[in-house]
Amino acid sequence: MPDGRCPSAFEVANAREEVGSTLGVDNGEPPGTGTGFRLASAILEDVTEAVLVTKARPTRAQEQEIVYANGAFTDLTGYSPEELVGGTPRIILGPRTEPSRLREIEAALHESKPVRVELCCYRKDGTAFWNGLSVSPVRDGRGEVANFVWIQRDTTERKVTEKRLAAEAFRDHLTGLPNRTLLADALRRALDHSERFGRRVAVLFADLDDFKGVNDALGHVVGDQVLVAVARRLNRALRAGDTAARFGGDEFVLVLGDLAEAREAIEVVERIEERLRAPFRIGSLEISVDASVGIALSDGSGRGSAEDLVRAADAAMYEAKRRNKGRRRFDDAPPGGSTECRVRLGQRGLTGIDVGGLRTGASALPLLRDADLRGDRRIRVDDPSGEGKGLG
Known about the structure:
The protein is α+β, with helices and mostly antiparallel strands. The protein has two domains: 9-160, 2-Layer Sandwich (Beta-Lactamase); 171-390, Reverse transcriptase/Diguanylate cyclase domain (Alpha-Beta Plaits, 2-Layer Sandwich), CATH 3.30.70. It has eleven helices and 17 strands. Strands 7-8-6-11-12-13-16-17 form an eight-stranded mixed β-sheet, with helices on both faces. A hairpin with a 6-residue loop joins strand 12 and strand 13. The chain is elongated. The N and C termini lie far apart (84 Å).
């Protein structure tokens, strides 16, 4: 080109009228032959995009006969021109190629219209890549469509970047758990389901007790590793379809949907407590954590908002923490009344351990311990009438 740069395939497509029917039938020459085609081929070899040229018939994308492939297409896919010419574009399709995109291409070919799509294709070695494909009709001297030009770009890097950015928008960067945005969506869906089918939804708001002590004594790197490990254990304690999210800092929110009765939420809390009981091994350290948990239960009518449910669970958690860390507080508000269920998990005895040669007492670092002493556990329901009843 006059400015010394290589022309793009799009520039070639825009200039094709100037070179006449370079890819089609002209002066009685068969497609893929003649001076015009050789001129176009020479131009297309210098473009950076991968290019295929096919006959205009048949219109099925997988069946059109390839009459030309440039060097950039060989570089992109690994197929040589000898392997391509006489074949069809089916050669780069595979199990993950979207049928809807193929139908979109075929519809455009049938109407002799240009089309742009992005679809999953495959190289000769079997590796998949995202293909930003533009297909344009080319007309001969009589104005009839004789060929289609398939201009292709590898858009895999951009797709991966988009996927990563989308994940970052909805996932906590440290733990990989859903963030507040995805949590809100999961809670709304759970409440919609509960309204349709007369089920209930529980929100668990968990806060790690005295977690600041871990960060202060061992540093934020170790603290972050503990948070990641806690997130894994919380996920494993849930039922299929439940959601665990990181709300911020050392706070986690869990959404339990499709509940028939409050007892099912208590069972999940008990599994969480059981999983958090075992110390976390971070390098040579054994670090134990406990959590205060507030539980809020919907009434199944769909009247309460997602925000109200989270706020109620948050308030219940702070009340549990105020009364005694390591306790669970359960607030259930069915229609016509208010019931409070407190789950007490007993008292814990703490002892000091050696951390990097420094003796750390329980009072200075209450989450590090080598003994876990628990008292009897009891679950009790207190209703507004003052007549309590045991749940287990």
